[in-house]
Amino acid sequence: MAREHLRAFEGLSGVRLAGIVSRTHERAAQLGKEFNIPAYPSIQTLYEATKADLVVVTVPELSTAAVASQCFAHPWSVLLEKPAGYNLADATSIRDAARGRNVYVAFNRRAYSSTREALKALENVDAPRFIKVVDQQDQEAAMRNHGQPELVAENYMFANSIHVIDYFRVFGRGKIIDVTPVIAWNPKEPGVVIAKVTFDSGDVGLYEGIWNGPGPWSLTITTPHKRLELRPLEQGSLQLRETRTQIPLEISQDDTMFKPGLRWQAMQAAAAVRGQMHSLATIDDSWESMKLVADIFGMR
After folding, report:
1. Which residues fall within 8 angstroms of residue 247, CB to CB, at 6 or more apart?
2. Which of 127, 156, 134 has its CA nearest to residue 241?
3. Strand partners, 221
4. What does the pLDDT look like over 210-258, one tens digit per residue?
5. How many other CB atoms are found less than 10 A from the CB of residue 139?
6. Domains and CATH numbers, the chain
C-alpha cells in the first residue's frame, strides 16, 4: 500500500513527498529511488529531517499500534491505513493514544467515486433508506494464500469486513440505536452471519456475511423511488421506480489511474492538513465503525 499512497500524493498541487521509513531499509531505499525521496532509518529521524506536515502509516495490522504510537510523538497529522487496530481493544488503545492529535483513517471506499456519486444521488431524498451490505470472508484463505497471521485471521471481521461494514455509517443517517443478530456469528463454525442495524432516523441496515464460502462484496441502498447498487464496489448503478433500467454512475478517471479512492483521499488529506474542509474519517469515526463490527459479531 505504501507505493499506492505515494503514487496518489505524487504530483498533487502544493504537496511534496518528503521521505520514507520501512522495517526493511532495502524496501525503503527502493521506493525512495522510485519516487526520488530519501529513506530514513526511523520515524524520529524522518520527522527531524523533514518536519513533514503529514505522515501516512501503511503497516500490517499487528504493527499498527506500535508504529502509530511513535508517530503520535510528533506534531504532524497522521493518516493510518485501515484498520486502525486488529480488534476493538487494539482500536480503543490506538484511539486513546491519539487524543489531542490530528489522526485520520484511510477508508478508501468512502473515497470511491461510486460511493460519492451514490451519496450525491441521495442528497435530496428524505425517505427512509434500506441499506444492505453483502460480505464474504475466508479465514483459511487469508492465512494460506495471503500470509495473514492467525490472530489477524481470527479477527478478520475487523481487518477486512470493516471495508464493507463501514458503509452502514456512510449511508445510514443519524445514530445507530440497535444491532440485532438474526443469524449469530459462531467462531467455532464460521458460516452465515446476518444482523439488522437500526438508526434513529428510521434507516435500517442488513448485514449478510458469508464466511469460509464463495460470494461477492456488494452494497445496495433502497428508497421508495431510488435504488442504488455498488457491485463491484468500484462501480455503481441507479434504478428509478417503475423502471428496470440500470443507469451507470459516473466513475472518476482517477479511480482507473490510481488504486480506487486513493487520489481523492490524498486530496482530502492535503485539505485536512491545510485546515480546509475535508471528508477523511477521524480516528473517533473509525472507532465507531470498529464498534459496529464488534456489535454485529457479538464481540463486546
Report:
1. 237, 238, 239, 240
2. 127
3. 131, 228
4. 999 998 999 999 999 999 999 999 999 999 999 999 999 999 999 999 9
5. 20
6. 110-251 (3.30.360.10)
Amino acid, res. 243: T
Calpha distance 240→79 (Å, rounded): 38
Handedness of CA 88, 93, 98, 99 (dihedral sign): positive
Query: In this structure, what C-alpha cell is assigned to residue 133?
Result: 451490505
Question: Alpha-carbon distance 296 to 164, whole Å?
Answer: 12
Segments of the chain assigned E as strands: 54-57, 77-81, 103-106, 130-137, 176-183, 192-199, 204-211, 218-222, 226-230, 237-240, 247-248, 281-282
pTM confidence score: 0.96
Beta bridge partners of 209: 135, 193
Separation between Cα atoms, residue 211 and residue 9, nearest integer Å: 35
- Residue 70: exposure state from Cβ atoms within 10 A (0-12, 13-18, ≥19): middle
Nearest residue to 1 via CA among 43, 63, 53, 50: 63
3-state SS assignment for residue 159? helix
Residues in the chain: 300
Interhelix angle 25-35/2-9, nearest 10 degrees: 20
What tens digit of pLDDT does each residue of 262-289 get?
A: 999 999 999 999 999 999 999 999 999 9
